[in-house]
From TrEMBL:
Sequence intervals crossing the membrane: none
UniProt-recorded name of the protein: HTH marR-type domain-containing protein
Signal sequence region: none
HTH marR-type domain residues: 25-164
Protein source organism: Dactylosporangium maewongense
Gene3D superfamilies associated with the record: Winged helix-like DNA-binding domain superfamily/Winged helix DNA-binding domain (1.10.10.10)
Organism placement in taxonomy: Bacteria, Bacillati, Actinomycetota, Actinomycetes, Micromonosporales
Length: 177
């Protein structure tokens, strides 16, 4: 017998109320939404513990992820994090006040600005990324690694089918066309 989750209860209710709305897309969407909520709870708890918002954490982790010198253009940050230019400006202002990022003009082109982690920012970013990663590992601890890898692989396939390919894959496809 298949074990039931909370989404099964929701789907059963919709099956009675609006049966034509129930299908694989609804079930997948509801489960992804529920799982995303569980992951967001973990991120919020860990980021709050170090005085950051999830958006600030996203900026710090994006800068740390690119490697030394830990710098990106604000437009690249906003695009990769799905933030508006106004939203990213507010986040950057707060992070700069906290001394974890600095903004600097490009030496070769004064029209270009860069956002980079300060040494303090590198330390904070690494600490919070490790804390979030440990918390996610605790959340998923009851789940066998094989199931996690299988689920991650299937979600990758879904994202690729929806056009969400890695930059290198998208470039290779456009070059071959």
């Amino acid at each position: 017998m298949v074990r039931r989750d909370r989404v099964d209860d929701v789907v059963d209710e919709w099956r009675v109320q609006l049966p034509d709305t129930v299908g694989p897309a609804m079930e997948l969407g509801k489960r992804i939404h529920r799982l995303a909520g569980r992951l967001q709870e973990v991120v919020r708890a860990e980021t709050a513990a170090v005085g950051l918002t999830p958006a600030e954490f996203d900026v710090l982790s994006a800068l740390r992820r690119v490697g030394a010198p830990y710098a990106l253009k604000p437009s690249d940050l906003a695009g990769s994090l799905l933030l508006t230019s106004g939203g990213i400006s507010n986040v950057l202002r707060r992070l700069q006040q906290d001394g974890v990022i600095e903004r600097a003009a490009d030496a070769a082109d004064a029209r270009v600005a860069w956002v980079r982690l300060t040494p303090k920012g590198v330390t904070v970013a690494e600490r919070v990324v490790r804390a979030v990663t440990r918390a996610q590992a605790r959340l998923f601890a009851p789940v066998p690694d094989e199931l996690l890898l299988t689920a991650a692989g299937h979600l990758r396939e879904l994202l690729v089918e929806l056009g969400d390919e890695a930059a290198e894959a998208a470039e290779a496809v456009s070059e071959g066309a």
